[in-house]
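Minutes, project check-in
Item: structure for the 128-residue chain
Input as provided by the requester:
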Amino acid sequence: MSGYTNIEAPITDLPLIVFGDHSCSFKYLDVPFVRGADGTQLMKFNHDVVLTKYMYFYLQNIEIHNAGKYERHYKYLKETEVYLPTMAEQQRIIAQVEQYEAVVAKALAVMAACPARRKQILDRYLQA
């Protein structure tokens, strides 16, 4: 990420989740950052109870009331009931999701390289 800010002290109490109050989007942050908009909510969790990354994965799969409308949605998010498995189970879920994410990232990289590879093949075999 890049950009400019006059804010000299980034947020360093990490990890946390940033919730876009209007967009209903979630971002998991584990690197220092500055808050880019006032329409965001910073969500910090007690790590003795819930792992932030587990909560991030969980929240990405919930339905937020009126998500398609322009309004503040954090009030609905606060009413959401969350299933909290044991810490060991949370860690297992995180590991499994990260494993799938790695497979998807690898597949996306292969797909992104396809146009260039296609051009290389055509250039090699179609040039006289």
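Outcome recorded: Residues 116 and 122 are 10 Å apart (CA to CA).
No further action items on this chain.
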